[in-house]
Amino acid sequence: MRRVVVVAAAATGVSLFAGAAVLLTGEDAPEAARTARTAPSPGDPLTPGEISRAGTIATGPSQEHMKAGRVELLYVERDDDKAEDDRRAEAYLYDYADDSLIVRTVDLGDNKIVRETRGKGVQPPPSRREETTAAELLLAHPKLGRGVRRAYANAAGRELRSAADLGLRGLIYSQPGGPCATHRCVRLFVRLPDGKHLDTSRIVIDLSAKKVHTLEW
After folding, report:
1. Which of 39, 67, 131, 216 is the most exposed place for a label (fewest CB within 10 A)?
2. pLDDT score for 14
3. Average pLDDT, stretch 102-131?
4. Which candidate, 110, 70, 101, 97, places its Cα nearest to that of 1?
């Protein structure tokens, strides 16, 4: 499991190629060799296909909430539980409605969820999709959004088309006593095409409430 500090397996395959080598001719032999080389071994990182498959399986029970924007898939990574022999993945999802982190363990051999945990007060770093969502909320703000668009136009010589045009980096923000004590909040750093960064030091995006806060100091 990802080790998060903020108040945030392997199917054994027996190779048949040695015994069947005499049957492989022409283009079959190189293809078989490539398959043998690329099959993941115990301890190997997840392949892109495994990550996609694990994400699809893990989000299955949350599809309706994801469509409504309540739940977001953050990450998928290999399950490092050495007590398990199967190749497994852990998917991290965040439920904005009750501000809890959901971790679902997927058995990649059986293609099913084998374990689920849910906890509060755990805030992994924001995902790329969350950074984009935070930027969209910022652009939708009546005053701050105009400022971002104006700064982008000055730097790029053209109008901003979407949040994808911006260089984004997000960090989790927590403030005792305020909404961000329990909500998932992000401080967004925005890089413009000329390499300069916007002054967003006082801006906090509340992903749970879908609001933009301006800090006072």
Report:
1. 216
2. 31
3. 95
4. 101
Q: 83: closest CA among 168, 193, 177, 1?
A: 1
Residue by residue, DSSP assigns 132-193 as HHHHHHHHHSTTHHHHHHHHHHHHHSS----GGGSEEEEEEE--TTSGGGTS-EEEEEEE-T
105 touches 89 (CB < 8 A): yes
Choice among 15-24, 42-51, 60-69 with the minimum mean pLDDT: 15-24
* Domain annotation for the chain: domains and CATH numbers: 23-120 (3.10.450.40), 128-214 (3.10.450)
Least confident segment among 31-35, 163-167, 171-175, 202-206: 31-35
CA dihedral 183, 198, 136, 101 (to 10 degrees): -30
- Whether this model's pTM surpasses 0.85: no
DSSP-assigned states of every residue in 48-92: HHHHHHHHHHHHGGGHHHHHTTSEEEEEEEE---TT--S-EEEEE
Question: Amino acid letter at 211?
Answer: K
CA-based torsion, 206, 209, 214, 217: positive or negative: negative
- Tokens representing 81 are 């539980």
φ, ψ of residue 185 in degrees (nearest 5): -120, 150
- Least trusted range by pLDDT, from 53-62, 63-72, 83-92, 200-209: 83-92
